[in-house]
Each structure stands twice: as C-alpha cells, then as structure tokens.
Design goal:
6-stranded mixed beta sheet, globular
Length: 148
C-alpha cells in the first residue's frame, strides 16, 4: 500500500464538473493499493499517517499532528502509484490491486479515518477525477507499507 500525503492549505476533487470533496488545512492523500494489501496493512498505514507530526508549532517546528491542528482529510484512490516503468515508455499497472479488492480497501481506509477524524472527504473510486490543491510548504511524504 502506498500513501502520497500532501500537507495542503486547501484541496478539492471534482468528477464531471461536480464537486465531490473539499477541505481546508489538512492532508490530501493519494492511495494506491496492491493485491497483497490487507486490512492490517491499512490499519498500520492509517495510524502512521494520522500520527505524522508535520504541522508547525508556535516555534515553527514541525511538531503537530493532523488532529492537533484541526486538520481535514481528502482521500483519493490512485492505482497509478503502482506504475512499473522498467520496460519501455508505457507504464504497466500489473502490481496495482484488482478493482474489486482495491475499492474495498479504499472504503475500509475511509471508514477507519472517519472513526478518528471529524472531516474526511473523498474522491470516487475508478472515476476520472480532477484534483486541485495548494501544497503547503511544499510538504509531501510518501508512505509505503513495504517500508513500515
């Protein structure tokens, strides 16, 4: 499982011109799922993400987590995080999770986040989404379950 976490001042997602999710200060998270991923892996990833202390405290140190600053979440599924570009110029996505399983894991991650965060917005699994954000920093972190 891979999470690309971007600390944002604001972010939004639309599908076919319809606004689906919109947040202020918080995390825009792109979520990639592989066939090997489980709910236990998702639990570890969510715990790590929500515990990241990457917001500035009163001394300008990145020392505060999402909950402490009243941050919000926008969760977007993105199978392209599992692109394999080793051969040729056309990426292979064979390592990405099968749609049914990946959709189930995406919904599970959303539900786990909602248990702990008051504002959790989302995209639409499998849709052609337009994502807008103002990256704050910029500050972007990649979490890979293979490295946790």
């Amino acid at each position: 499982m891979k999470f690309v976490i971007q600390r944002v001042s604001h972010a939004s997602v639309t599908v076919e011109g319809n606004a689906l999710g919109k947040i202020g200060k918080g995390f825009l998270v792109l979520i990639g799922v592989s066939d090997e991923d489980t709910k236990e892996v998702a639990d570890k990833m969510v715990k790590k993400m929500l515990g990241l202390r990457i917001f500035e405290d009163e001394n300008g140190k990145t020392n505060l987590d999402l909950h402490t600053v009243g941050g919000e979440l926008l969760l977007i599924s993105q199978f392209t995080l599992y692109a394999d570009c080793k051969k040729g110029n056309r990426p292979s996505f064979i390592r990405a999770g099968k749609p049914d399983m990946a959709s189930e894991m995406y919904e599970y991650i959303i539900a786990k986040c909602k248990e702990q965060m008051p504002v959790v917005e989302r995209g639409e699994f499998g849709a052609d989404m337009k994502v807008e954000l103002l990256n704050d920093g910029p500050f972007t972190i990649v979490l890979d379950s293979a490295e946790l």
